[in-house]
Amino acid sequence: MNVNFLNLLLTVILAFFFDTEALSPHYYDHTCPKADQIVTNAVKKAMANDKTVPAALSRMHFHDCFIRGCDASVLLDSKGKNKAEKDGPPNISLHAFYVIDNAKKALEEQCPGVVSCADIVSLAARYAVALSGGPTWEVPKGRKDGKVSKAIETRQLPAPTFNISQLRQSFGQRGLSMHDLVVLSGITDFPYT
Ligand code: HEM
Question: What pLDDT is recorded for position 64?
Answer without folding.
Answer: 98
